[in-house]
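> call design_seq(struct)
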């Protein structure tokens, strides 16, 4: 559950870091941050990369390329990595893909 902080709040007591300099109080703690999506995404990325390796296709090199390989599925209600989406992206950017892999 995401917690929203009030826009105006009382000034928190200042804390000191290891060097003795003043720093503000933490606004978010580790308990506030939900990162459960990361493990699912990592498993999906590994499966996607394996599918690309099986077809000897180039692999995404950065976050924007991974994002380009995702498509939203109305059937499942979530995004998923798709080889055909990635191949379309590659062709759009000038890579020639043999028809045999399609």
């Amino acid at each position: 559950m995401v917690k929203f902080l009030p826009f105006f709040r009382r000034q928190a007591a200042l804390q000191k870091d290891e060097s003795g300099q003043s720093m503000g109080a933490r606004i978010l703690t580790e308990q506030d941050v939900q990162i459960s999506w990361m493990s699912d995404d990592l498993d999906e990325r590994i499966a996607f990369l394996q599918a690309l390796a099986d077809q000897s296709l180039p692999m995404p090199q950065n976050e924007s390329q991974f994002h380009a390989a995702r498509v939203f599925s109305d059937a499942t209600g979530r995004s998923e990595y798709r080889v055909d989406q990635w191949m379309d992206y590659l062709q759009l950017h000038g890579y020639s893909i043999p028809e045999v892999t399609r």
